[in-house]
Amino acid sequence: MDNWQEKRLRPPVWFKPEYHYRELEVPDPESRPVHPARFKPEASNRQKQKPLGAASGRFWLAGLPLLLASFNVPAADLIEVYRQAQARDPVYRGAVYALQAARERVPQARAALLPAVNLVGAAGRQAGHVSFDELAPVTRDVHTRSWNLQLSQPLWRATASVALDQAGQQELLAEAQFRQAEQELILRTAQAYLDILVAQEAEHVAHLQIGAMEQQRALARRTFEGGTGTVTDVHEAQSRLDLSRAQAVVAANELQNKLAELTRILGVSYARLAGLRTDGALPRMEPAGLQPWLDSAREQSIQVRIAQASLEVADREIAKSQAAHSPTLDLTASYGSNFTSGSITSPADISTRSRSTQVGMSLTIPLYAGGGVQSRVREAVALKGKAAEDLEAARRLAVTQARQAFAGVANGAAQVQALASAITSSKSSLDANKVGYLVGTRINMDVLNAEQQLFAAQRDWHKARAETLLQGLRLKAANATLGEADLSAINELLEPANP
Fold first, then answer.
1. CB 21 within 8 A of CB 434
2. CB 308 within 8 A of CB 179
């Protein structure tokens, strides 16, 4: 072999075996469950790594005050954020007040069947000049006072009875709507929280990618200066570095958007959030089959319960409209006193005082109301038909959502497994390409592509884990079984809250 060929294949004198990409510990993908470790650079590599470019340095300096201020602040976990959302989210608080208002409909409807007692009082004065039998006019000044205690007890009011039953169904409807607001709050809070974690990991990976690209650019420059590389390698590395910096800016902007979404729910912002542990196993689905979830969603979904309650309310509306034809019977009683100081119309100007008691029955029979009652009945029947169709639509939607969420959980778990394997193989590929580049069997573009593939696998792995957790919550929500316990299960996967 010629000397120049030996020089071409011999690693440069500055090449050391410890030059490698920062280790990412990923276990054997064949193991169950997959527990990839958190992607962190080693301490020794951090010391050896050269500083980032000027744009990246300015980015970190801009966030330095917030970073320093957050060191002594405990990281908030998912349960703590959810507690704050319950106390601060205006949508959820509005649902609480809506439920309180709906619960007053039953007492209001019951009041129409209970006795009504009223106390009525009056006082008056009448003055004038009167003449009797063509005699001279005389002046009269008459004072009157009266009070009356009135009692009315409905004995038969079909409309009020049906309205009371309808109010009970409306309260059930309001409770189902509030339950839906509870589940939506859980989903919105978990979505915002996990989106922030994904955005943080994306930003973290973006800055690690910048560091790796800067190292590759430095390597390309050294090989070019040593005569074993080309200027094209330098330009390619610079191009990838600039692209990585642009991606870091996009990642930082996305993180700010996700933080703003959580702030919109809470009204306050958190300096630190506990991240997902990389060694935590994703929760399993129980039951593991699809059909039980579909059957449960068709009958137990919150949307289905709301539609069923709406159908019952519509049915009671028909009965209430028909009851407008029914007669009403009330028991009435009164007791009162009247006093008159005289009379302005009688020659005998004498005072009178009386006390009286009256008991009676009041019967009202509707005969004709211009066709309005029949029209309201037809309207109520049509609305009940619409409510029945809404119920069927809600059942189909619940089944579809359950099917999609189940597929999301199953496919997400498989995707997490596959991405963990991809991270392991991508790292091996990157190490091999770096060695091959140094000995001349690989070109710079091969190394850059391998690095890009590794970073993409890391981002996708974090995103797939978060999305799988969210799909599990959506599956529970489709079956009306989502609760705080499900958030607690995710909370167990978070890192310790203490800094």
1. yes
2. no
From start to end of 103-137, where are the E strands? 116-130
Distance between alpha carbon 444 and the CA centroid of its chain, in Å?
47
274-301: average pLDDT: 87
Residue indicated by tokens 């099917």: 403
Q: How far apart are the C-alpha atoms of 24 and 37, rounded to whole Å?
A: 7
DSSP secondary structure code for residue 103 in this structure: T
Q: Helices 444-478 and 290-300 meet at what angle, rounded to 10?
A: 50
Is the preceding peptide bond at 33 cis, omega within 30 degrees of 0? yes
For range 394-410, the mean pLDDT? 94
Instruction: Please give the DSSP secondary-structure letter assigned to residue 227.
Output: T
Q: Which residues of 260-277 are buried (b: 16+ CB within 10 A; e: fewer)?
A: eebeebbeeebeebbbbe
| CATH number for the domain running over 114-127+137-156+327-365 | 2.20.200
pLDDT band at 280 (very low <50, low <70, confident <90, very high): confident
Stretch 263-288: mean pLDDT: 85
Q: What is the total residue count of the chain?
A: 499
Radius of gyration of the chain (CA): 40
For residue 28, the model assigns a pLDDT of 41
Cβ-contact 234, 269 below 8 angstroms? no
Instruction: State in Å, rounded, how far the first CA of the chain is from the last one.
Output: 60
For residue 94, name the pLDDT band (cuts at 50, 70, 90): very high
CATH of 14-105+165-315+374-491, one of 3.30.420.40, 1.20.1600.10, 3.40.50.300, 3.30.565.10: 1.20.1600.10
Q: What is the DSSP string of 53-94?
A: -HHHHHHHHHHHHHHHHTTTSPPB-HHHHHHHHHHH-HHHHH
Mean pLDDT of 89-101: 95
Q: Which residue type does 147 have? A: W
